[in-house]
């Protein structure tokens, strides 16, 4: 049973920047108030024509290019998100079509801000398989899994509520997993949930429990609601415990960590968690000041940036840890196995992926056209 290795990574954030000073023109707040309470200076906001799926596709192409993997090699696509394009179909299916990944199974996973860690654990199991059952993903270079965390939280943020609107931003991050007998890879994952805290961070309306109505719109119940103090208390306990649990699976301890990549929610939470694990600040990655809380996208965006900045080297022990709505929590330990810094893409590789992107668009249009033709024929009968 070959372990799952991270062989490619990529992220995407919208170009539009919303600063604290911008927010001060919208609600009763200030740059100092936001910075001192959250550590956030600015966040990225999706343009009107950007969606969770479009940002996920951008991150996915970058991860595939880094890995040297083509969409046809993908056997699995998981999109972790709390803000899908639609209730159904799954955003992952939209990504599958946009990539032209004709061989890939695709589904969404909803676990709040812990979604990427959940998806990473699920994908790793499908990549590795079991002694008695082969994995869904073909072994070696023939197959691969694509794991994406993507969010457009700006669409469910109440921009008149200063307790939440200062926190959130949009973006996407992705990794490519492949099975490999080489040393390292995903060492383990721990996941947990406590549904009794589900009301602490919730999007009240829009589902079957509270369908859309004039009342729900008037009461602004289609925007996320959070009880910040309770979530804070939960997070500072859950994150260190999850890290210790996942390390214990491999007979490791916090002192063995080369880089901790936590969910980017609040700088004070990161500091408390680091102190509980006795980790120096330079061993805890944070880009919170630039992006805010991007939910399921925060860990993969941070992981991608840390790798690109040269903060992760081959054989480093990297731990990703998150907490979020549900309540959920989880951690994954990865022994990094890709040589860094990665070689820049050759002209041939850049050209190859430009062709693949063009083919994916053409394939999607042709398949839609053929369906339209069939539908016309069925109507005539």
Defining key terms:
381 residues, alpha/beta, Peroxisomal Thiolase, Chain A, domain 1, five-stranded mixed beta sheet, four-stranded mixed beta sheet, 12 helices
Q: What layout of secondary structure does this protein have?
A:
Blueprint: E1 4-12, E2 17-19, H1 20-24, H2 31-38, E3 42-44, H3 52-67, E4 74-80, H4 91-99, E5 105-109, H5 115-128, E6 144-152, H6 162-165, E7 170-179, E8 185-193, E9 201-202, H7 214-218, E10 225-226, H8 228-248, E11 259-262, H9 267-277, H10 288-291, H11 298-308, E12 317-324, E13 328-335, H12 347-380
Parallel strand pairs: 4-5, 4-6, 11-12
Antiparallel strand pairs: 1-7, 2-3, 6-7, 8-13, 9-10, 12-13
Helix pairs in contact: 3-4, 8-9
What this model shows, in words?
- With 381 residues, the chain is α/β, with parallel strands linked by helices.
- Helices cover 37% and strands 21% of the residues.
- The strands form four sheets. A five-stranded mixed beta sheet has the order 1-7-6-4-5, sandwiched between helices. A four-stranded mixed beta sheet has the order 8-13-12-11, with helices on both faces.
- Helix 4 (91-99) links the parallel strand 4 (74-80) and strand 5.
- The mean pLDDT is 94.
Q: Please tell me how large the radius of gyration is.
A: 21 Å
Q: Helix segment count?
A: 12
Beta percentage is 15-25%
Q: Main sheet, how many strands, which sense, barrel? A: 5 strands, mixed
Q: What count of domains describes the coordinates?
A: 2
CATH superfamily of the largest domain: Thiolase/Chalcone synthase
Q: Can you tell me the residue ranges where pLDDT is under 50 for at least 5 consecutive residues?
A: none
What do we call the CATH topology of the largest domain?
Answer: Peroxisomal Thiolase, Chain A, domain 1
Number of strands: 13
CATH class placement of the largest domain: Alpha Beta
| Shape descriptor | globular
Query: From N to C, what is the helix and strand string?
Result: EEHHEHEHEHEHEEEHEHEHHHEEH
Distance between the termini: 53 Å
Mean pLDDT across every amino acid position: 94
What is the helical fraction, as a range of percent? Answer: 25-40%
Main sheet: strand order? 1-7-6-4-5
Query: Architecture of the largest domain, CATH level 2?
Result: 3-Layer(aba) Sandwich
Structural class, by secondary structure, is alpha/beta
């Amino acid at each position: 049973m070959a372990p799952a290795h991270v062989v490619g990574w990529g992220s995407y954030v919208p170009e539009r920047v919303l600063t604290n000073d911008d927010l001060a023109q919208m609600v009763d707040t200030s740059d100092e108030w936001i910075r001192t309470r959250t550590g956030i200076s600015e966040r990225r906001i999706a343009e009107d024509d950007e969606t969770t799926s479009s940002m996920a596709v951008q991150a996915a192409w970058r991860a595939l290019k880094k890995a040297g993997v083509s969409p046809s090699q993908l056997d699995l696509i998981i999109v972790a998100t709390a803000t899908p394009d639609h209730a159904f179909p799954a955003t992952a299916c939209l990504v599958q079509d946009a990539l032209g990944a004709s061989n890939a199974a695709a589904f969404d996973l909803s676990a709040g801000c812990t979604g990427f860690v959940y998806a990473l654990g699920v994908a790793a199991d499908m990549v590795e398989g079991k002694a008695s059952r082969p994995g869904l993903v073909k072994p070696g270079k023939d197959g691969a899994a694509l794991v994406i965390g993507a969010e457009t939280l700006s669409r469910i943020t109440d921009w008149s509520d200063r307790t939440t609107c200062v926190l959130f931003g949009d973006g996407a991050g992705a990794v490519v997993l492949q099975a490999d007998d080489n040393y390292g890879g995903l060492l383990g994952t721990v996941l947990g949930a406590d549904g009794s805290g589900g009301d602490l961070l919730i999007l009240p309306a829009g589902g079957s429990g509270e369908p859309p109505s004039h009342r729900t719109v008037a009461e602004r119940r289609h925007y996320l609601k959070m009880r910040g103090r309770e979530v804070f208390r939960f997070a500072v306990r859950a994150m260190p415990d999850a890290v210790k649990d996942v390390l214990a699976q491999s007979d490791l301890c916090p002192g063995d960590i080369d880089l901790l990549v936590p969910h980017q929610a609040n700088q004070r939470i990161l500091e408390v968690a680091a102190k509980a694990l006795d980790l120096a600040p330079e061993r805890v990655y944070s880009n919170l000041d630039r992006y805010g809380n991007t939910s399921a996208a925060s860990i993969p965006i941070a992981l991608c940036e840390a790798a690109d900045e040269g903060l992760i080297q081959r054989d480093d022990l990297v731990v990703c840890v998150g907490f979020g709505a549900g309540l959920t929590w989880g951690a994954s330990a990865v022994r990094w196995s890709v040589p860094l810094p990665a070689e820049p893409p050759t002209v041939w590789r850049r050209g190859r992926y430009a062709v693949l992107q063009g083919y994916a668009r053409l394939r999607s249009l042709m398949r839609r056209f053929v369906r339209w033709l069939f539908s016309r024929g069925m109507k005539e009968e």
